[in-house]
Predict the 3D structure of the following.
Amino acid sequence: IKIMAKIFALLILTALYFSVVICADDKDIVKDISEIEQKKESKMQLMDKHMLHKLDGLVKKVSDLMNENYEMKYYIDEMKHHNDEMKHHIDEMKHHIDEIKRDNNVMKQNYDTKIESLKMEINNSKLLNNAVTEPPFTVYVRWGRNLCPAGANEVYRGYTGGSHYTDQGGASNYECLPTRPQYGRYTSGIGTYSATMYGAEYEV
């Protein structure tokens, strides 16, 4: 019994010893873990501060970019507004220019009409003055002669011509044909409805 009691007491002491050691080791582990956690927390705090600083910088840059974008949009809207105003003014100027052109055309037409009317009045006045101031004269044809009588001036010289007496639809009177005729536009040949011209013959 004494031996068993000693063995039991020895076992109890051994258990207490190991229990104390284990407890001591557990405290060290807990301390180490606590230090690790503190360091980790400290590092996380530093990382959080660093990240927050970076995020603040990014947020500031984004905010600055947004402000610049708003300013640019404002300036663009202002430019569009000014462009619209300029376009409106240009359209108004074009409209006024068109009106001025139309008025000028109307005025030019009126002036041209008045000028032509004045020219006709001047010509009529000249003719009237000539008729009043110049002595009366007579124009006549001297058929079959190549000289004018005394006191008369030659105005026109030519050859006597006319239609054949058997033709129908010809000239009813004699015509004075020029010595050097100037032909206009004509078609060579005899047309369906045409007349012929003959030289006159005088018998003495």
DSSP finds one helix and three strands in the chain. The two ends are 209 Å apart (CA to CA).
